[in-house]
């Protein structure tokens, strides 16, 4: 009898403690003063799925401020940027008649614009990797590589072996990969490079329990810099699937190679991230060699991260949409936009701008794809044209507008890229690059289905319900 009473008391105390923990967590979420949409999403998860919600909030929900990710002293040093004084001397100065987005990024992101660049566009992984490995084979001084994913497969091993050969020639090599992006990669894969003198670091290691709050802040950038003169940036990682695609279609992506002074921006981004993990700030002039005029492209390397005070690239997108006069084309694999971006897209379309968004008809992630589809009707209602790419998986991150502005990089149109990830995009100003990337978009459009609201309304109620439920969690995905 006494045991039964004790069990009941214990269960009552457990229930009280359990409820207290849930309510306390909800209170902490509210006090964090984050986006109200995100706050409500977390409250819903904690209220209806308390146990799962607590685990997810512990790993993914806590807000990590800059002083936790990077020390205050370190962040202060980073804000000065490597070789900033030298770069400022060679940066483009005549900004009066240039795109207002350029000056916006210069003010908010300290991103210096550089003219005189040559840019090559790659729309498949085979040509990009062939070019990257060719440039690596010509390296004389240093190779800096940064990828979210660096797989231990045929492609990863091929590049690894090439890097080992260059290290044996005396070339200084640094490789930075994301810890979460490479969770499944055997550490021995990277250890083999370490044994050959290659410096290899993972970004923000996630180790239970101390660093679990960092699992949500990932380095999604894809950057390569060879001898400080040639740089690569875009959406492609190092993995075999980027070449082979899927059984149901190709993997369609966009990457660029830059020759010219804009490589200073790529180098600065890499060296800043390298300092975060290695605590060594490299500012030698060897990493910023003098360069002659290479072409006619004006370029600006813009980064965004969760440790600064602003959502730089997201706010730049809103600014660009507000300034668009004739058209604005977007390619993105995922569409989970913030409220600000939704309103900007709708406003531009309602003002008569030809706004087009291209998504994959079939994606690599079921849940995120369903969430993306939930936004289409309200965008089409405002006049946004939605194209579904049918040839395979569209992983390209590309914007082009008014034959003046274009960009390629790692930033997706979703909460994670805009608010949580470390991202990087190359922004180009001028007709030459805009027309070339516009042609890329229009070429992809030939493999697309143009949605209509009438057609879209005929999808099953099951799909509508799944999309709506997933949308509630969009800020957390």
UniProtKB/TrEMBL annotation:
Q: Note the Gene3D superfamilies from the entry.
A: Endonuclease Chain A (3.30.870.10)
Principal localisation: membrane
Name the domain of life this protein comes from: Bacteria
Q: Which SMART domains match?
A: PLDc
Identify the InterPro entries for this entry.
Cardiolipin_synth_Firmi, Cardiolipin_synthase, CLS_N, PLD-like_dom, PLipase_D/transphosphatidylase
Localization per record? Cell inner membrane; Cell membrane
Membrane-topology annotation of the record? Multi-pass membrane protein
Catalytic reactions on record: 2 a 1,2-diacyl-sn-glycero-3-phospho-(1'-sn-glycerol) = a cardiolipin + glycerol
Q: Where is the active site?
A: 220, 222, 227, 395, 397, 402
Cited SUPFAM superfamilies:
Phospholipase D/nuclease
Q: Name one GO biological process term.
A: cardiolipin biosynthetic process
Key words, A-Z:
Cell inner membrane, Cell membrane, Lipid biosynthesis, Lipid metabolism, Membrane, Phospholipid biosynthesis, Phospholipid metabolism, Repeat, Transferase, Transmembrane, Transmembrane helix
Under Gene Ontology molecular function, one entry of this record is:
cardiolipin synthase activity
- Membrane-crossing residue ranges in chain numbering: 9-30, 42-60
- EC id: 2.7.8.-
Q: Which CDD domains does the UniProt entry name for this protein?
A: PLDc_CLS_1 (cd09110), PLDc_CLS_2 (cd09112)
The PLD phosphodiesterase domain covers 215-242, 390-417
Output the Gene Ontology cellular-component terms.
Answer: plasma membrane
Matches recorded under NCBIfam families: bac_cardiolipin
Q: Which family does it belong to?
A: Belongs to the phospholipase D family. Cardiolipin synthase subfamily.
Function comment: Catalyzes the reversible phosphatidyl group transfer from one phosphatidylglycerol molecule to another to form cardiolipin (CL) (diphosphatidylglycerol) and glycerol.
Indicate what this protein is called per its UniProt record.
Answer: Cardiolipin synthase
